[in-house]
Write a structure and sequence with these properties.
By secondary structure, this protein is mainly α. The chain has 4 helices and 2 strands, in the order αααβαβ.
């Protein structure tokens, strides 16, 4: 624990005070190559922490974009095609569009979990019979 205390109280402040950070905007243009190289590690650290924070707390960052949509439905065929007769539909039929339904091609509400995980907004296709 003493080592961590020494790093936080002594080493880190000494390191930061030795960085060539100018007092004015014009001072940035007067920095030499060695000064700019000395600024790379702390800049990379701050950028990395910022990116990790963004990934952790921003919902948009949690979107998982994957090329494959269908992960489990009829994987043994080259193209999934289903035919349903209109006469088989009673009043309404709910068809899955997220490819996550266990009752394919009908919707079972699996899109709710999919939408939460990916920040998507997909819902079922609802087909109604005209009266």
């Amino acid at each position: 624990m003493e080592t961590i205390s020494h790093v936080v109280k002594v080493s880190l402040p000494n390191y930061l005070s030795g960085l060539p950070i100018p007092d004015s905007i014009g001072g940035w243009f007067k920095l030499g190559v060695k000064d700019w190289l000395a600024l790379i590690p702390p800049t990379a650290l701050v950028a990395g922490l910022g990116y990790m924070s963004y990934q952790a707390w921003c919902p948009e960052a949690k979107k998982s974009i994957k090329a494959r949509v269908n992960h489990k439905v009829k994987k043994d065929v080259s193209k999934v095609v289903d035919t349903i007769d209109v006469e088989d539909i009673t009043e309404k039929a709910f068809f899955c569009r997220c490819w996550r339904s266990e009752n394919w091609p009908y919707c079972d509400g699996a899109h709710g979990k999919h939408n939460e995980a990916t920040c998507d907004n997909v819902g079922p296709l609802i087909v109604t019979k005209k009266k």
